[in-house]
Design a protein that fits this description.
The complex is a heterodimer of chains A (about 240) and B (about 290). By secondary structure, chain A is an all-alpha fold. Helices cover about 60% and strands about 0% of the residues of chain A. Chain A is built from twelve helices and no strands. A seven-stranded mixed beta sheet of chain B has the order 3-2-1-4-5-7-6, sandwiched between helices. Classes of the chains: A mainly alpha (about 240), B alpha/beta (about 290).
């Protein structure tokens, strides 16, 4: 996912502000409609696939889950900040989604359901291993930037200094996320990383939409404070320039 | 006078259109006046954008392999519990000795189907060579991929008897060790009901076929939904599958064929001489040709 151009345009706030792909403009109220971001065609083919898997064609499960494996892993990784734990949690979440596929009610998209299971699994894992939870931002974990595999960027023209910039940004993001309390970290991962709608996030976390907005606002402000050293820094410039 | 302290908590909702129009106007006006709040908004937008950009995070190498290993106990229980050697020998013997009546009954249909098979041929799951007789007297370049090694001896004997040169290999349909766009005709009869992953097999068939190449198939399939036969097929499946080498009596193979990405899929339905698995389809699927 490239950095959204809309969100970074200068002066955007004076006109329309940043837009969110799936939430759209809607009347402000304490209740919010559940909008499924999955396209109709994907939804239909997923429904058919799930039906066939439930009917016994279990091998098709890999096809169902393949497009979301990375989302599941990234959710676990950003919540836990440890690649090995994240893989374990991601695999466990996918296994559970298979074992409980009969309980899937098609109310939300399969992806949202899978992310919900992942968040729960990560939560359980954290209970087991509390020590890494609230590490201070001043004490970066040993598995820092070197642990991340640089992915094939869609824009292959990325310059080396941009790649380096990304590493630094990722490291700063990791440290900031680690410094946040659990609920703030969760809301940022669900809304800003996985781009779930406010309604989906509210349903997933079992809190009201108003609560989602309040938590999100606080979490973003806290992230902004924690990231202040890099937000105006030169390492961001090459990445931001590309998005203008 | 609007206070910055009132504005700041609203900025997150403001960038998502989650404020009413009056508040929106109020905030916009303030942002025009207050450089600090405008900068704060800009920074929150940057935070949101940085979080959304996960381009640098990849799945660990081998993730899906490990996932498959973990799920294998649940996805293919029958296969895992099967004692391989003896069982596969028994299956090979069964196909070699007990399918004459079936082949005789369907000989006419198969002959008509195989009339179109020519060029470089790849047969997936040729078993003990029941289809070889249909290539007799024709010049063929035939490759067979048969995962059960105990079938190989029967097939080679049959090929020798009919005077047909064969290139018989081990392997599975889900991962064909065949070059892309290199095969004129792929053949599979009574195979798709037993493969581990039907979608993967069809994807591989499409990959190896030349543009315009054809896939010839004859399969027993699920009875129509809602029929008694379909219920019986579903009911008997847990016993049927481990006994008959992973065969699924209620597989809707035609749907998978239609969704696989062939340019055309043409088939007839008929009733075959297998109890419970009597609904059959026979036909040809054609890969898209390169020509516009």
């Amino acid at each position: 996912m490239m950095i959204s151009t809309r969100r970074l345009r200068d002066g955007d706030h004076r006109e329309s502000g940043a837009d969110r792909k799936h939430s759209g403009a809607r009347p402000v109220a304490d209740v919010c409609m559940l909008i499924d971001p999955t396209s109709k065609a994907t939804r239909e083919s997923e429904t058919a696939l799930i039906g066939r898997i439930r009917n016994g064609e279990t091998e098709l499960f890999y096809e169902l889950v393949r497009p979301y494996q990375r989302d599941v892993f990234i959710t676990a990784l950003l919540l836990l900040q440890d690649r090995a734990d994240a893989e374990e949690v991601a695999q466990e979440a996918i296994l559970k989604s298979f074992l409980h596929l009969n309980q899937f009610r098609f109310e939300a998209g399969f992806r949202t359901w899978l992310i919900r299971i992942t968040v729960n699994e990560a939560h359980m894992r954290r209970k087991h291993d509390r020590k890494s939870l609230f590490d201070s931002i001043d004490e970066p974990q040993s598995d820092g930037e070197g642990d991340y595999v640089m992915r094939n960027f869609r824009d292959s023209k990325e310059l080396p200094e941009e790649a380096l910039g990304r590493k630094q940004i990722r490291s700063a993001l990791d440290q900031a996320l680690t410094a946040l309390p659990r609920d703030a970290r969760e809301i940022l991962v669900l809304r800003d990383v996985q781009q779930l709608s406010i309604a989906e996030t509210s349903q997933l976390l079992g809190i009201t939409c108003a609560n989602v907005k309040v938590r999100l606002s606080r979490a973003r402000s806290r992230m902004r404070e924690l990231l202040t050293p890099i937000l105006g820094d030169s390492i961001l410039r090459p990445l931001l320039k590309k998005t203008r | 006078m609007i206070d910055c302290r009132d504005i700041r908590p609203e900025l997150s909702n403001y960038i998502e259109h989650e404020v009413d129009s009056a508040s929106r106007a109020r905030i916009a006006f303030h942002l025009g006046e207050c450089e600090e709040c405008a900068a704060a908004l800009d920074e929150i937008q940057r935070v949101v954008a940085l979080l959304a950009d996960t381009n640098d995070l990849a799945l660990p190498a081998g993730f899906e392999d490990r996932l498959r290993k973990r799920l294998s106990a649940h996805i293919e229980p029958a296969r895992v519990q099967t004692p391989p050697g003896l069982y596969k020998q028994a299956v090979a013997w069964f196909w070699s000795h007990a399918t004459f009546a079936y082949e005789r009954t369907l000989a006419e249909r198969k002959r008509a189907l195989f009339a179109g098979v020519h060029g470089k041929i790849l047969e997936i799951g040729p078993g003990t060579g029941a289809n070889l007789i249909h290539y007799r007297g024709r010049e063929t370049d035939w490759i067979g991929i048969e995962p059960n090694p105990y079938m190989h001896a029967y097939l080679k004997k049959e090929a020798e008897k009919l005077g047909i040169a064969v290139d018989l290999r081990g392997g599975v349909g889900e991962r064909l060790e065949i070059e892309d766009n290199s095969i004129d005709a792929v053949v599979a009869t009574l195979v798709l009901c037993s493969v581990n992953n039907l979608a993967d097999v069809l994807r591989e068939i499409l990959r190896v076929l030349k543009p315009g190449g054809q896939f010839f198939f004859m399969e027993h399939v699920a009875a129509p939904r809602g029929t008694w036969l379909r219920r019986i097929q579903q009911w008997i499946r847990p016993i049927w599958k481990p006994l008959l080498d992973g065969c699924r009596p209620d597989q809707e193979t035609w749907i998978a064929l239609e969704q696989a990405g062939f340019a055309t899929v043409t088939y007839d339905r008929f009733t075959g001489p297998i109890p419970i698995a009597s609904p059959h389809i026979i036909g040809v699927a054609v890969k898209k040709s390169c020509r516009p």
